[in-house]
Amino acid sequence: MHHHHHPPPTTTRTTTTTKISTHFIILATTIFSLLLILTFSFSSRPPHPHPNQPHPSLFPNHQPHRLLFHHNPNDQNTLLPPPPAIAYLISGSTKDTSRIIRLLFAVYHPRNQYLLHLDRKASQYERDDLALYVQSVPLFKAAQNVNFIGKADSVYPMGSSALSATLHGAAILLRVSAQWDWFINLSADDYPLVTQDDLLHILSYIPKDLNFVNHTSYIGWRESRKLKPIVVDPGLYLEEEDEVFYATQKRELPDAYRLFSGSSSSVLSRKFIEFCILGTDNLPRTLLMYLSNSPSSASVYFPTILCNSRKYNRTTINHNLRYASFNSRQEVLPLNTSDFNDLVMSGAVFAAPFEANNPILDQIDHELLHHKHDEPVPGGWCLGENETDKCTVWGDAEVLRPGPGAQRLEKRFVQIFSNGTFLSSRCIYE
Fold first, then answer.
1. Burial of 303 (0-12, 13-18, 19+ CB in 10 A)
2. What GO CC terms are in its UniProt record (predicted)?
3. Which of 115, 258, 267, 414 could form a disulfide with 212 if both were Cys (CB 3.0 to 4.6 A apart)?
């Protein structure tokens, strides 16, 4: 039997281990102290906005309720529900760059989203010029809420390519932001009659599933001329510009669903836009295929889907919040200074059509929007002390300062909802 004798531990190994442990503790303590110092030194600096994030002065982290700067000086700092956000598609054609920029400033608010589109009739130089201008405006860069479509769509107003371009823009806006509540499509012929603070203030009290669309199911001889002809839109398949082709035959109206016609301009909820583009119900796609060979399909698509859907026909309001003037043949007339009082009394949010540089636009800017045409409309987020240049200093975008336009719009909504006619006039089969 063998006994294994282990040598006794030596003091040399113990001393070495102790020295290593001591050095390790000193090193770890030093590193921890340096990290602590660096942490405090960096945290004491003001945060810089991430290149992909909006400027913190426009969107600070604070309580979920907003402060209102009301037109009544005796009723300030009232807690109100958070304001909504709107996604705007602003479209134009060749020579419309300056009109789109003017319209953008007139409807601008840091909370909203904006998508600009110049169709294929505009040159690439015009699109590049528009993009460069947008990128040069510090406010747009800070809020990061103005985008533009680089690859333009063909748009023929009498064909279905106009509807295709609208759906394209709506799909992009769904992708760009998950925060907006309503979709509004504007053309270069449109112009607002109230400020965005006025509009957002009133919409904060409106259910976010409502859709404001002019519509009727009445099909008279004038409507039949728009719905029964068969057309071929060259914007769907030709690279070069061409005329819309009209077939000699006509087709009967569908009986699988009831057609409703109205205005191509509307105020649509985000949920409804998602239903049209992402929904599992096949009606939006079926109707889109049918309207691909119909003239003026943009004025039929949204009203027909709304009124044929059980989910959305109860959310439809038969008013698109716009003002327009018609002659005896129901043709839209261009607006001028003689229409100004009617515009104000209408309580509408937008009006159209306006010709480029018409003096009435200057009158609207001066008397209703209170801004210069190449500057944003002042709102609660503008903190500049200079009356002529308030929006060079930015504040919280949730702070609204509604004015007389909010009172006009409130009165209009009361007229729409109070007498019950909005229930009896929506999606009625005539």
1. buried
2. membrane
3. 267
- Non-local (6+) Cβ contacts of 242 within 8 A are 234
Of 329, 382, 393, 319, nearest in space to 349 by CA = 319
pLDDT, tens digit, for every residue of 328-359?
888 899 999 999 999 999 999 999 999 999 99
Fill in the DSSP letter of residue 182: E
* CA gap 149, 122 in Å, rounded: 12
54, part of any domain: no
Local structure of residue 388 (DSSP, 8 states): T
Calpha distance 271→203 (Å, rounded):
16
- 23 part of a folded domain: no
CA angle 91, 93, 95 (to 5 degrees): 125
Give the DSSP letter of residue 318. Answer: S
Q: How many domains would you assign to the chain?
A: 1
Task: Of 215, 202, 173, 177, give the one whose Cα is nearest residue 408.
Answer: 202
Domain range for 190 is 66-424
Model confidence band, residue 111 (pLDDT cutoffs 50, 70, 90): very high
